[in-house]
Amino acid sequence: MAFELPDLPYAHDALADFGMSAETLEYHHDLHHKAYVDNGNKLIAGTEWDGKSLEDIITGTYDKNAVAQNGIFNNISQLWNHNQFWEMMGPGKTAMPGELEKAINDSFGSVDEFKSQFAAAGAGQFGSGWAWLVKDTDGGLKVTKTENGVNPLCFGQTALLGCDVWEHSYYIDFRNKRPAYLDNFLNNLVNWENVASRL
Questions:
Q1: Distance of alpha carbon 86 from alpha carbon 194, whole angstroms
Q2: pLDDT tens-place string over residues 174-199
Q3: Phi and psi, residue 138, nearest 5°
Q4: Closest CA to 195 of 123, 112, 107, 97
C-alpha cells in the first residue's frame, strides 16, 4: 500500500495571522511534502521495505555511521517528519497543559529556558535540518537538533515537538531570518496540546 500525502489539519491560510502564510503552506505541504511521498513510494516499490510502516523503514534504513543517508531514508524520514510537523502547529494559541509544563520545568528549569535552548538548537543547525524537543530513553526531556531528515526515531527517542529549519519552511515569510522564524514558531504556532499528547 503506497503512502499518501495527508491533508493539512487546517486550511492553507489558517496560520497566516500567526506568521506562516498560505503561500508557504502551498509550497511546503503541497509541493515539498508531496515530493517526499512520491519519491519515497518509488524508492521502496519492490524492495524489502514495501508494505512496512514509516517508522520501521526509518529505523531500518538509518545508518548511524554515515553523514549522507540513503535515498529511501531521506524521503521516508522527511515524509514522517512533515506528517508530525503539521500536527504540532495550529491556528490560535493553545495554553501549555500542566503536565507538559511540569515536565519542561523539571528538565529545563523553566519554559523560557526550554524555548531559549530550542531556538538556539534550531538557529545553530548548520544547513538543513530540524530542532526537536524529545523524551529521551531515560524519560527526561531534552532539546536536540538533527541534520537533513534525521529524526528522534533514529535514536530511540520520542519526538514531542519538531521545527523544520530547512529554508523552504521559512524563506517566503522570514527570508533568511531563521531566529525570527523560530521565535514565531514557539510563541505563535505550536499546538501545545498536541505536544503534551505525545508525552
A1: 10
A2: 999 999 999 999 999 999 999 999 99
A3: -90, 0
A4: 97
Are the CB atoms for 100 and 199 separated by under 8 Å? Answer: yes
Residue 82 burial (CB count, 10 A): 23
- Cell 500567526 maps to which residue? 18
Handedness of CA 94, 100, 101, 107 (dihedral sign): negative
Contact 111, 187 (CB under 8 A): no
Identify the residue whose cell numbers are 537538533.
Answer: 145
Query: For residues 3 and 72, is the Cβ–Cβ distance under 8 A?
Result: no
* Nearest residue to 122 via CA among 185, 55, 173: 185
Map grid coordinates 486550511 to a residue. 11
Strand order in the sheet with 129-135: 141-147, 129-135, 158-164
Q: Is the pTM of this model over 0.85?
A: yes
Q: How far apart are the first and last CA of the chain?
A: 30
